[in-house]
Amino acid sequence: MGAEYLYVIRERFKEVKGLGDKTIQQLSEEEIYWSPNQSSNSTAVIMKHVSGNMISRWTDFLTTDGEKNNRKRDQEFIDDRASKQEMISTWDNGWKTLFHAIDHLDEENLLQEIYIRGEAHTVIEAVERQLAHYSYHVGQMVYVGKLLKEEEWESLSIPKGKSDEYLQDTLKRKRESGQENK
User: Fold this and answer.
1) Which residue of 1, 50, 110, 162 lies most exposed, with the fewest beta carbons within 10 A?
2) Nearest to residue 99, comparing CAs of 58, 56, 47?
């Protein structure tokens, strides 16, 4: 059961990263810095925050508090106008840290107690907490992308009005690959 959980959670993190990556790809250098108002974050700021969180939480995941002393969380929300490529590098570095930690977990670790800001969590609780946090922020990025791109937005899921077509295509691919009803 634990090995299956670790496989599934890694796949879920990959899916969340993929949604973020596909959103970033659709946005221009300027668009990653757009926000709808002063109290909202741009895609670039969200990327920087998520990366900072990942590096803090997933570095020495099993042995040190997830809120590292060297993390400067408030600075993650400052728009410093790095290039899009630099922001992608920052984003990817956070995900690299996360996947490295996930890849070094095993079944025996799942109920181990770890700490985030001095609060005890099992590894499972901490992983689920982070998955929810990153999904929340990537959802914000996707929404901002949709607002900016409007009709130019390339859907990252099933486009409106295309549910039946999507289902039929999926079933057809499964039949053709011999994976029907699996």
Assistant:
1) 1
2) 58
